[in-house]
Amino acid sequence: MSRIVIVGGGAAGIELSTLLKKTIRKEDEVILVEPETHHFWKPRLHEIAAGTFDSDLDTVYYFTHGARHGYQHYQASMTDINRENKTIMVCGAVDDIICEVKYDYLIIAVGAVSNDFNTKGAKEHCIFLDSANQARQAWHRMSYVLRAGEEHTINIVGAGATGVELAAELERVSRKLLRYNGTPLKINLIEAADRVLPNSPEKMSRKVQQELEKNNINVLLNTRISEVKEKAMITADGHSLDADVQFWAAGIKAPDWLNGLGRLAYNRINQIEVNMNLTSTVDDHIFALGDCAAIPQPDGSFVPPKAQAANRAAEHLAKSLGDFLHGKPLTNFIFKDSGMVVAVGHYFAVGSFAPGSKMESKFVLHGLLIRRVYDTIFRLHQRTISNMFTVSRLMVAKRLKAVFKPKI
């Protein structure tokens, strides 16, 4: 019998926990260590912040999900790794009790957080969207702002997918709420690079920027923030951008608390260095995947921090580790990018083809149909952690619920 301990219940962690029971031996045990009670799909945290996320239908309760899919949920956070004894120390999320959990194989999938690059005042005066709790706190703040009765200014640093989607969703909500005597918003989307979505094809960046500006979002490119104050951001050239609410959605890094645990090898953004088969470079009983792992590829590049990469790594490791426990060797994870889709509001999205394909530089897909593709990606994640029948019931329930609630 082997005990497999998975730390982190994000997209990779919960998919791996679900899929492993189908591939490992009957006597093997799976434990998921995650401090939250419910699973939220991280690419939709901006919807929680804007108040448009349906928490009744689009979340998963770890305890009952684990009972149904063959894993145990420990509501706790990992605080240390003892590789010699094959144990981790965890701190209970409710009672703060420290206890020891033994493992035969440890899988770390704690994801990533925004990188403030040690910008002065960012931690103190910005809202981050790295967890559901932070997103809920953001909505409490935005809920007040949207009912304040006068125009407020929002600063968002980072025009990657999170920043773009947050800006578009906040603008849409504020516009819709005007019919209920809501408050208009002035939104500044601030990016240090020379275009929005700097890691996407240029045509996609241009289309997204056009749509943002059409919706009266002020896009500030080549603008680096050097300091954040309580009600303003100071740019590198000394200009002040006043705001009532400030978000930081730039950069990524693995959590600071992870770096150094278990004397594993880490890179400069706290990611665990792993081999192509997802084992740690210093301990083959420890695996890492998702945004907290630096996963090399045959061409010398690394797997990008994308939800699709985390999902595919989880699917790969579920099969590879299952085969390994049945006496076969571990296999390498080779990631093939399928392109990207970014939502710009509720009825519009922009998508690109896979990098390196002939279509990538020639065409950009956009419109309502691509927005439905964006929704489908989330439904595929739901299907992986449940089944198609459950997803179909959720979709019907959501349609019925939409008939009776106010249109936002």
UniProtKB/TrEMBL annotation:
Pfam families (UniProt xref): Pyr_redox_2
Keyword Magnesium: no
Protein name: NAD(P)/FAD-dependent oxidoreductase
Family indicated by similarity: Belongs to the NADH dehydrogenase family.
Single annotated GO MF: NAD(P)H dehydrogenase (quinone) activity
Domain FAD/NAD(P)-binding, first and last residues per copy: 3-312
Residues spanning the membrane: none
Cofactor(s) demanded: FAD
GO BP annotations, alphabetical order: aerobic electron transport chain
Keyword Oxidoreductase: yes
Organism: Photobacterium leiognathi
Keywords from the named record: FAD, Flavoprotein, Oxidoreductase
Highest taxon above the source species: Bacteria
